[in-house]
Structure formats: C-alpha cells, structure tokens
Specification:
5-stranded antiparallel sheet; 5 strands; alpha+beta; 2 domains; globular; 3 helices
Length: about 120
C-alpha cells in the first residue's frame, strides 16, 4: 500500500493549479485577439481601412487610430515611407461609407462593409 505524504499532495495540487492558470491565460489572449472581429462601427472602419492599405500593398508603420464623434469616425496612421494615412467615415448612412487618403491622395472612397466582405472572401 502506497502512502501519499501531505507535502507531496500539496505539490501535486500546486502543479495542477499552475497548469490551469496557464491554460486560462492562453484562452484570455485568444479571446482578446478575437475581440476586434465583433466590434462596433468604429472597429469596422479601422479594420476596413487596414484592409484597404494591405490590398494596395502599402507598408503600415502605425495602424490608423480612430476616434468617433457622434456619427463620424476619423482615423490617422502612417506608412513606412512616411506618408500620413487619414480615414474619414460617415456611420450615419446605410451602408457606412469611408474615404481613405494616403499622402493627400484618395485611394478608397466607398462602402465599409464591401471592404470587409472582400477581405473575408479572400481568406476562404
């Protein structure tokens, strides 16, 4: 008959708790990574703007940071060549529309959802 000492049992319990915490930490980071997918209009504009930049094969230095005032979203970022990226979106319309400008030149003017749909189809 094998006897387990209290110290050995405590060590085993601590190992199980540590393993559970590592698993939960991994889940939390995966969940936070998924959060932008189910976001609001501001998040949709930001993701669509990044999709437009990537589709145009532009090197992103600073991903556009967006703010919302009422039904208007504005974003500013930069490219690796130093160009400034600006995004202006009207989220009061159906569908939401946006204009993406790089270095003063408009590279996209249209529907936010169309960009998101196109990017989603590219991954299928």
């Amino acid at each position: 008959m094998t006897r387990t000492t209290p110290r050995l049992a405590m060590t085993g319990t601590a190992a199980v708790i540590a393993a559970m915490l590592l698993v939960l930490t991994g889940c939390a980071s995966q969940i936070s990574g998924l959060a932008p997918v189910g976001g609001d209009a501001l998040t949709g504009v930001r993701i669509a703007a990044v999709d437009v930049l990537l589709e145009n094969k532009l090197g992103i230095l600073e991903v556009p940071v967006c703010t919302q005032v009422a039904k208007s979203v504005s974003c500013v970022g930069s490219l690796t060549d130093g160009s400034v990226v600006t995004v202006e979106a009207d989220i009061s319309t159906t569908p939401d529309t946006m204009t993406v400008t790089v270095g003063g030149e408009t590279i996209y003017d249209g529907d936010v959802q169309a960009v998101l749909d196109k990017a989603a189809q590219a991954t299928e």
